[in-house]
Amino acid sequence: MRAGNLALVLGELDRHGPLTRAALADGTGLTKTTVSKLVGDLIDAGLAVESGAVRDGERGRPGTAVRLSGHRVAALGLEINVDYLAACLVDLTREIRVTRTHPVDNRSLPPSEAIALLRSLATTVLTEAATLGLTIAGAVVALPGPVNPATGAVHRAPNLGWHDVAVTDILDLPLPVTVDNEANLAALGELWFGHGPSLGDFLHVSGEIGIGAGLVVAGDLFRGAHGFAGELGHVVVTPDGPPCRCGGSGCLERYAGQDALLSSGQTLSDLVTRLQASDPEAVTACTQAGTALGIALTTAVNLFDPDTIVLGGIYAPLFPWISTPAARTLHDRLNQMHPKVPTLIVSAAGTNAAPLGAAGSVIQQVIADPMPHIESPLTTPTP
């Protein structure tokens, strides 16, 4: 019962804080005496802190507000993508304390070497966390492919050439580590660090070398029966189109992925510069990619009927040029059946959406079950 009550109070502070003890009692239905004891435990554990006197409505004397503390517990979000590694350190208040991104062509490396590079990056961030006085509750690794929820292995990441790779076993960090799909975590990053609940039910599209999507319904991630939902990049746009790394043909990735948009030797920044100069070839490439994206999104909308579609990853800097053809295609294909075609918006979580969602997942776990961090205070792992 104590564990449940601690989670109840911490969750109330997370959703509505800062709050006085009296307001916490009203919000949780617990007695003021119980709340005071629980708040004391949370403060002693470094999960909450008093933040000054406030007037609790119009009644009585001012009370002392309590809020989440960002000074002790943090979470580590990690990402292995096709052409980069990323790490993000987030404290309990969801303040971003450290971000690191390293460009690297992981397609040219065996899984063990790519994971070793991620371990090195994670170790650097753990050292930085120690200098900030933060202790790490856990880490989640974002991967560009379906993850087997039973084993924690990436089932298949075609753009990396990985199959059934046990990432956590190889990574071997001195803290709890789990893995999840990059697109799923990017959607959660948008929910917790981006536009949030104002999006309603939304589809977050992660445009990278691969293209993934995460669907958030009523504030929760929809994973599908086997955890493999969201492979938008392998929706067929043209049945007789070019072969895809997934084994199919004519997949969206072949028309709207990063490799399709960038010519040899060109960077994303180069493409944006050309688009800003109205270079005809660059504009045509984005128009074609946006049209293909709109075709794939039409299928997603017919299946899931989201309120909003969020474009992230490389689609964020390309949004002014890729969203117009995508929105036009959606409207042309949906307006007869759908009274309201979903709005296309650019991601507010940006390119760090996946590692932010990864770190945020750990923070959610701490808030849902703070008891381990009260009974056995965390210590900063030695990198």
Structure commentary:
This protein is an alpha/beta fold. It contains 13 helices and 15 strands. The chain has helices at 2-16, 21-28, 32-44, 111-131, 167-171, 182-193, 253-256, 258-261, 268-276, 280-304, 319-334, 353-368, 371-375, and strands at residues 19-20, 48-54, 63-68, 73-80, 84-91, 96-103, 135-143, 154-157, 162-165, 177-181, 202-207, 211-217, 220-222, 308-313, 343-346. The strands form four sheets. Strands 6-5-4-7-10 form a five-stranded mixed sheet. The chain is globular. The two termini are 36 Å apart. Keywords: Kinase, Transferase. InterPro entries: ATPase_NBD (IPR043129), HTH_MarR-typ (IPR000835), ROK (IPR000600), WH-like_DNA-bd_sf (IPR036388), WH_DNA-bd_sf (IPR036390). Belongs to the ROK (NagC/XylR) family.
Features:
383 residues, alpha/beta, Arc Repressor Mutant, subunit A, Nucleotidyltransferase, domain 5, five-stranded mixed beta sheet, 15 strands, globular, ROK, DNA-binding transcription factor activity
Short structural description:
This protein has 383 residues and is of the alpha/beta class. It has 13 helices and 15 strands. It folds into three domains: 2-68, Orthogonal Bundle (Arc Repressor Mutant, subunit A), CATH 1.10.10; 73-187 and 354-375, Nucleotidyltransferase, domain 5 (2-Layer Sandwich), CATH 3.30.420.40; 195-348, Nucleotidyltransferase, domain 5.
List the helices and strands and how they pair.
Blueprint: H1 2-16, E1 19-20, H2 21-28, H3 32-44, E2 48-54, E3 63-68, E4 73-80, E5 84-91, E6 96-103, H4 111-131, E7 135-143, E8 154-157, E9 162-165, H5 167-171, E10 177-181, H6 182-193, E11 202-207, E12 211-217, E13 220-222, H7 253-256, H8 258-261, H9 268-276, H10 280-304, E14 308-313, H11 319-334, E15 343-346, H12 353-368, H13 371-375
Parallel strand pairs: 4-7, 7-10, 11-14, 14-15
Antiparallel strand pairs: 1-3, 2-3, 4-5, 5-6, 8-9, 11-12, 12-13
Helix pairs in contact: 1-3, 2-3, 6-12, 10-11
